[in-house]
Amino acid sequence: MRRTGTTRRGALTAAGALAAGGVLAGCDGEERSPSGRTGTARTVRTSPEQRLRTAGVRTSAALLARYDEVAAAHPVTDAGLAPLRAAVRQHAEALAEGTTSPSPSPSATDPAPLPSATAAPSTEAVGSTPAPSATPAGDARTALKELAAEARRAGDAHTAALLEAEPELSRLLASVAAACGVHAYLLTELAKETPAS
User: Fold this and answer.
1) What single-letter DSSP state applies at residue 5?
2) In a domain, 3, yes or no
3) Is residue 30 part of a domain?
4) pLDDT single digits (tens) 112-122
5) Following CA atoms 163, 63, 60, 162 in sequence, which dihedral angle do they give, to the nearest 10 degrees?
6) Which domain holds residue 123?
7) What secondary structure letter does DSSP report for 31?
8) Residue 6: exposed, middle, or buried by beta-carbon count in 10 A (0-12, 13-18, 19+)?
9) What is the CATH number of the domain that holds 78?
10) C-beta atoms surrounding 126 within 10 Å
11) Can you give the C-alpha Rg of the chain in angstroms?
């Protein structure tokens, strides 16, 4: 027969739940600076996170610039590259959200590159940043294959940054790296379907 009423196990479980609730309620997300000012924990970014985000933006912006170069040099690829370019732009914008000096958010259909797309890669960037070559290959298929390789390198750079990232940024970097892998596959398939020029 089962005992009715409060048992020790039930009382300890309830006390533990109340204590955990009290601790979680005490975490209001505000941090106090030495001057006594408060700010939410989400707006306070650490220097390593800033560095990782900046490197991620730079990597995505360089890849976006490369997409634009290939589309301009080979108009036959523009229709296939348009959705991928829009996605890379969104990746750069998502990574830029946590930086102290966010770039203006152009629309997904705006062909203009992000302001940092032409900036030279920093030596303090984590991983290897894909450096766009001077001009895309003369053949559209070859240019798409080179772009696929650059998308893979960008994904590798985002993956390398995962080791140093905080959990929230780590999830974002993992998503962007996975998307770069998918882009590399799609670009390879697009190269197979593109007529030789």
Assistant:
1) S
2) no
3) no
4) 344 443 333 33
5) -10
6) 48-99+109-193
7) E
8) exposed
9) 1.20.1260
10) 22
11) 24
Q: Read off the pLDDT of residues 95-105 as tens digits, 9 standing for 90 and up.
A: 998 666 544 44
Distances (CA, A) of 131 to 18, 59, 168: 55, 9, 27
Flag whether 173 is in a domain.
yes
Whole-angstrom distance, CA of residue 96 vs CA of residue 104: 10
Residue whose C-alpha is closest to residue 63's, from 174, 189, 148: 148
Q: What's the mean pLDDT in 32-61?
A: 71
Residue 2, amino acid: R
Q: What is the distance between the alpha carbons of residues 42 and 56, in angstroms, rounded to a whole number?
A: 19
Number of domains in the chain: 1
**C-alpha of 44 from chain center:** 19
Strand partners, 30: 40
CA distance 129 to 92: 13
Rounded Cα gap, residues 57 and 32, in angstroms: 29
CB 143 within 8 A of CB 70: yes
Whose structure tokens read 């890669």? 121
pLDDT at 103: 46
Q: Establish if 135 belongs to a structural domain.
A: yes
Tell me which of 126 and 77 has the higher pLDDT. 77
The H or E element that residue 191 is part of is helix 167-193
Give the dihedral sign, CA 37/43/44/50: negative
Helices (H), 106-166: 140-161
Q: Which residues pair with 38 in a beta bridge?
A: 32
